[in-house]
Amino acid sequence: MVENPYLPKLAKIEAIKEETVDTRTFKIKILDEKVRNSFNFTPGQFVELTVFGYGEAPFSITSSPYEHENFSITVRRMGNVTRGLFRLKEGDIIGVRGPFGRGWPIEKIKGNDILIVGGGIGLAPLKPLIEYIILQRRLFNNVILFYGAKTPKDIIYKELFDIWKQYINVELTVDFAEKDWGGHSGPVTVLFKNFKLESNNIYSVQCGPPIMMHFVTRQLLSMRMEPEKIYFSLERNMKCGMGFCGKCMTGGRYVCREGPVFNYSEVKNFLETPV
Amino acid sequence: MNKIRIGIFSLSSCEGCIVQILNLEDILLNLLKKFEIESRILGTQNRTESYDIAFVEGSVMSIDEEMELKKIRRMSKFLVALGECACHGGNFLVRDFNVGEILERFPGSETWYSNPIDRYVRIEYYIPGCPIDKEEFFTVFKSLLLEKFPEQISNTVCSECILKENNCLIDKGIACLGSITRGGCKAICPTFNRECYGCRGLSDDANVEGLLQTFKEKNIEPPTHLTLITRREGRKT
Amino acid sequence: MSHELIEVKGVPKVEGAVDVVVKLVNDNFKVEVRAREGIRLLERLLIGKSYKEIPFIVSRMCGVCPIVHNITSVQALEKALSIEPYEDAKSIREAMVIGGHLQSHLIHLYLFTLPDLVGKKNILEILEGKEELVKTVLRLKRVANHITDTLGGRAVHPITPTVGGLTRYPSKNILETLLMESTLFKKTLREVLEPILEAEIPKFENRTQYLSLHDSRYPILEGKLSVSNEIFFEQEEYENIISYLNEEYSTARHYLINGKPYMVGALSRLNNNYSQLCDDAKEYSRKYRISFPSNEPFVNIKAQAIEMIHLADKIVDILEELTSKPLKQENIKYNIRPGEGVSISEAPRGTLIHHYKVDESGKIIEANIITPTAQNYKSIEECLQNYLTTLIGEKLNTISKEVEKLVRAYDPCVSCSARFLREH
Amino acid sequence: MPIFLDRIMKYYQLIGPVKTEKGVSFEYVSECDKVDLDYLGHTVLPPKKFFFPPIEEMFAYEYDETGNLRIYDFLEEVSKGMRVIVGVKPCDISSLLVLDKVFTGEYNDPYYTTRRNNTLVVGLTCNKPKEYCFCTYVGSGPSIKKGFDLLLSDLGDMYLVEVGSEKGWKLTKFNLDIFNEAENEDIKERERILLEVEEEIRKKGLPNFATIDKVLVERFLDRIWDDYSRKCLACGKCNFTCPTCRCFTISDEPNPDLKSGKRFRIWDSCHFLSFTKVASGEVFRKDRPSRFKQRIYHKFVYSINEIGSISCVGCGRCIEVCPAKINILDVLKEVIVGGKSVSAKVS
Ligand SMILES: Cc1cc2nc3c(=O)[nH]c(=O)nc-3n(C[C@H](O)[C@H](O)[C@H](O)COP(=O)(O)OP(=O)(O)OC[C@H]3O[C@@H](n4cnc5c(N)ncnc54)[C@H](O)[C@@H]3O)c2cc1C
Ligand code: SF4
Ligand code: SF4
Ligand code: SF4
Fold this sequence. Notes:
The complex is a heterotetramer. Chain A has 8 helices and 15 strands. Chain A has helices at residues 33-37, 80-86, 106-109, 127-135, 158-165, 210-222, 255-258, 264-267, and strands at residues 9-20, 23-30, 46-51, 55-60, 71-76, 93-100, 113-119, 143-149, 169-174, 184-185, 202-207, 230-233, 249-250, 253-254, 261-263. In chain A, the strands form 3 sheets. A 7-stranded mixed sheet of chain A has the order 10-9-8-7-11-12-15, with helices on both faces. In chain A, strands 4-3-6-1-2-5 form a 6-stranded antiparallel sheet. Chain A has a two-stranded antiparallel sheet with strand order 13-14. The radius of gyration of chain A is 18 Å and the shape is globular. Chain C has a single domain, classed as Cytochrome-c3 Hydrogenase, chain B (Orthogonal Bundle), CATH 1.10.645.10. Chain C has 13 helices and 14 strands. In chain C, the strands form 5 sheets. In chain C, strands 8-7-6-11 form a 4-stranded mixed sheet. Chain C has a 3-stranded antiparallel sheet with strand order 1-2-3. In chain C, strands 12-13-14 form a 3-stranded antiparallel sheet. In chain C, helix 4 (87-117) runs antiparallel to helix 5 (123-152) and helix 8 packs across helix 10 (299-323). Mean pLDDT of chain C is 86; it is low at 418-424. Chain D folds into 2 domains: 2-202, no CATH class; 212-337, no CATH class. Chain D is 35% helix and 18% strand. Chains in contact: A-B, A-D, B-C, B-D. Bound molecules: flavin-adenine dinucleotide and iron/sulfur cluster (3 copies). Residues 157-158, 161, 166, 168-170, 176, 178-179, 187, 190, 196 of chain B line the site of one iron/sulfur cluster.
């Protein structure tokens, strides 16, 4: 019988870490050793995660591509699947399909300056890229991370920023600052105030709410960044992850299979405006 | 593990929706055994202080019922509106009266209103239909046990009608409302050659103007209750 | 001087919300049966509506017996338009109604009443030890529902009955399947009747008047009216015989004949039509020594069981007849014209009256619906008053239980009855 | 023909057009004389429902006592038994060829492909078009060159049978006693009938679809779309009746024991508001024109990139079933005629 790509591979929740009130990181281990060993991904790719009885939803892989035994996802509680996932404990069984999609264009961006822009949970698919860059630091030039969250409490991966800061530039901002917040406040675009394009050899990668990506892209274009160097990861409703169900189709392209990472020159000719 | 506690309550209604639950003959016994189900009709009420899931059928037509409903809400983790009476204050057919006129003609009558239950309390889920579809009820029921809320059905009756390979009644000059009505009933009325009269309420993006236009082009007189449905759901036309 | 003795709030295991209050007024019991369901203004709603919408609306009066409401209104409207559908359509409707009666009786007898009869609180307690019985009852109920489902489109609030005939006729295949199922029903029914027919019921007589249809066949959808087989009158004359009365304490209207309470329901039907029963039904009533006419209100329960035997027989006959020849799948053509029509039928809980006046455009200008339970209220009250005198000396708790039982024996359907607006 | 069908039924499950109370629809048949090969035009639902059913169980899961989870794949059921579907018109065969391309490629959809592999297609050329047929314009009828195992043509007193595959050949080889070698005249007769049908369809005078994608791209922001979507009831019938539409949604249903359950896939429609809704509540095609356009652009523009051709097979079903009687041909004509860059070539 043919291999059925719709069947989730069983996996175990190895560890759960609380990031914020409504966001947790789940460390996942695929049970079957053969499957586990063949599970390779590019940063920016995602898995379809099944919580049995609740359904299936796409989540970006957030662990470093160098981690082999396990992989991780960071999940914000939204609806059924995520609520079901939050009810699970370490050791419980879930299902995994994937990895799916096209990740960040690592080969292309090597040797260049890189501007990484993340918003909210959108940092999740960027984390493996950042970790790759840090591990291969000499392959990249200047690297800047702009990250925005709603409030200081909503910042994910808090403990990692200090480590990251040793290797790359990191700037944080929050929409709604609280008293003891010393940093920037306002949408991510405020971080662009002190930012100048110094060369043409710069790529930008971003992931966040559609509205953030819209304004950041406008900003970058106005700074004359080349459209094919502006990358982002799109979020769409997706069920199968393989370009069959038709739900994620945007401008004739399947976000799940051909994306979720696109560059601006690809999408600017889409009939539907994707960001 | 404690048994999951289910309450089934009835306010002003025809009790058709509860009868639909009793009509789940094949699984009723299993449900009764597996869960602690309380309902007046089964004679099993007043044993618990709290419910994991409460289903409320019927609309609110008196202060007593309002108080009862609020009490049920306080005792329940999830509250589900069962049927059109509870979801929308009654099948529009049963609710069409001009309040002003009635008050004028019968001064002093205090019990003329018939309100959906979400006017008084928060509702976790709606099961529309007059009566409810028993299979839909069962699906929702199963999901709620997992604290999962199935997506509210957003397709139209038409899309279920075509799956039955029916011939469209509009082509025969009959004023069917399937195209603007929320599906989930498996298009049972058109399947039995009767126009859908919109008992499940308007669909997500119901194009009422468009349907009226179609009726006009085909010389079909729109049913009088169409305005009642749209008025009930606070839409124009 | 009056003071409240007992109040049963929300009698369990009946259809709809009803309270019973027993007061002591000058040393006499006074019983009030108070419907608590919201007034649903049904007749008022019908005015100005097209005749086509009426059957949909009236079936929403009651979720337990929607079919008979629906079809009675269709018949009344047909009379108003002076038409009569073809025999086959009428037979199919009758089969539907019988399916409805059977499921209603099954619910009443086994879900509501059986616990009383065997001293249990509810069906759950019966399950322990009698699971097979309950399973069989549910199987029977499924067949009864399947009959209405397939013929009517849906067991609750049927779809197909329409003025002039039916919107969709069943295929021969379907009728044959139903015939098979109902033959099985007829056989299986025998297995579950014993606990009801054998059960001990309180010995209590209450002489009253019994109203039902009366016909050469056992009446369901047609016939004259009979009061205890003494007074006979035509359907159209009902307003001259039956008078109404509003009570402050109830949302339902109350009715009288000759100024006195009367009873409707299975007991009345059997009292007035015993000889028209099928042989099997008669044999069962002989075997279990239940004789008619009877003046014992609790016998209503047994009457329903006996009636089920007859109805199960009848439905097999109808389906045999329908499958024995090609089916006429056609509706009567008609023109809309002004008119007035009364149709009276036997609903599971008793005599049901629908009366409409239609104008030249087919709009309703007058409507009157009298439901069985509304007619029974006064009888229930009178009966309770008498019953209570036999219970003097018992504990209050026991008395309330007995009150509940008697109310349930009448098989009241409160949501049907509570639909009039207080017109002061 | 009945003899042939009868023999097929000995070894295969037979699917064919059957007259029902409401018209003709493809159904499993148990008595071969129920098969109606004279049906006009097309059935309400296309044969895709036998390859991609409206609701399909994908797998079941169950926790055993020890807490281990087992998955039962319903694909195992699907792969059992061989079927023959008879009486498939060329437009519907073409649609299967479209779906073949959609459901294979980088990934394969096993539910669809298994059913395809298990099912022999016995086609039937079209002798008379129905009111809304326009296959000739999109090159999918009234006859077809591939995609069938056998292809029948009704010549009045007999059927001409064309063999299209090894499997089809086997089907005839074992039944040679009821076949005769076709004569040249028979073949000519078939050509004559087909030409007649083609001519009749050509009478519709539709524009050329060859460059329709370019025109559509240019007119994405046209007022036409607003006008039509005011009429469109967004009911989704066109999607469900279209032989090439295949969007679906997936949903899980637990059993009341909470230890087991099933996953289903269910047809979905790009006309529904919920189609593009994500958890944050955002809906990517909120306005009706954008949804109205999605179906048309997917069929006539995006599809070219996706599978190398448009994915409309000209059966006319969507026109016939639309309660608002929106005619996709009118829409396309209006786009072309109204277009500035392409001269309106109405042949
Ligand atoms: C490529 C991709 C990567 C993602 N990565 C992450 C991540 O790393 N962390 C995270 O928290 N969230 C991520 N999301 C969003 C996440 O998929 C949704 O939050 C999730 O689907 C919500 O599911 P639910 O069942 O809890 O919500 P519900 O609202 O109950 O969703 C119901 C169904 O709709 C579908 N659906 C709803 N929203 C979305 C959505 N936004 N995207 C796709 N399908 C949806 C799902 O299939 C789901 O079964 C990602 C989405 C995409 C497309
Ligand atoms: S929604 Fe309809 S069936 Fe349900 S209780 Fe109300 S009137 Fe009866
Ligand atoms: S009959 Fe009614 S529900 Fe069915 S397709 Fe036509 S309009 Fe829609
Ligand atoms: S077809 Fe229409 S009226 Fe009939 S049950 Fe469905 S929504 Fe209600």
